[in-house]
Amino acid sequence: MLGTNVDDLGDHRPGQAAATERGAVFPLVDAGFTKADVRAASQALGLRTWDKPAAACLASRVPYGTPVTFAVLDRVGRAEAALRALGFRQLRVRHYGDVARLELELDDLQDAVARRQEIVDAVRGAGYRYVTLDLEGFRSGNLNGGRR
Fold first, then answer.
1. pLDDT in tens, 73-99
2. How far apart are CA 131 and CA 126, in angstroms?
3. Which end of the chain is flanked by fewer CB atoms within 10 Å, N or C?
4. C-alpha to C-alpha distance for 38 and 143, rounded to whole angstroms
């Protein structure tokens, strides 16, 4: 059972196809729920996660054609956790071997530059050698559709 909603259907998600082939079901899609519907229902039910930032699968941080291994996913996860510990809420760490390309909210870019050494130390602590900041900011699914 996956938490995919109808807003996710227009995006290229190979994992959904693989899950479908293995018999997964998508109850939120069957119910016609959008991301906004999920948040509204969660808030109405009093769930504290109703406004939690989107959290796509860590494999979405790895460019197509790059092997997805437990070591890669662990490195990405540790880098993202370290950035959240620094107070960044909505982010992605895109994995390019020894290079981590950070996507932060546009409003956070100035703070990130001011705190660059903290960020570099945090991301290097997760195993990356080089740390880059994407000046276009956070973009969900930007490795899809030819943007690799």
1. 999 999 999 999 999 999 999 999 999
2. 11
3. N
4. 25
The contacts found for 75-81 with CB under 8 angstroms, 24 or more apart, are 75/126, 75/127, 75/128, 76/126, 78/125, 78/126, 78/127, 79/122, 79/123, 79/126, 79/127, 79/128
Residue 57 DSSP symbol: -
- Cβ proximity of 5 and 34 under 8 Å: yes
Which H or E run includes 67?
none
Give the global pTM.
0.73
CB-side exposure of 49: number of CA atoms within 13 Å? 3
Task: Give 40-68 pLDDT, tens digit per residue.
Answer: 999 999 999 898 877 778 888 999 889 99
Burial letters for 75-95: b for 16+ Cβ neighbours within 10 Å, e otherwise? bbebbbebbeeeebebbbbbb
Task: Give the angle subtended at the CA of 4 by the CAs of 62 and 137, to the nearest 5°.
Answer: 45
Pairing type for strands 99-104 and 91-96 reads antiparallel
Q: Looking at the DSSP assignment, which residues form a beta bridge with residue 94?
A: 101
Q: What is the rounded CA–CA span in Å between residue 98 and residue 131?
A: 9
* Residue of 75, 42, 51, 47 lying closest to 61 (CA atoms): 75
Residue indicated by tokens 């030819």: 146
Which two three-digit tokens encode residue 90?
């909505």
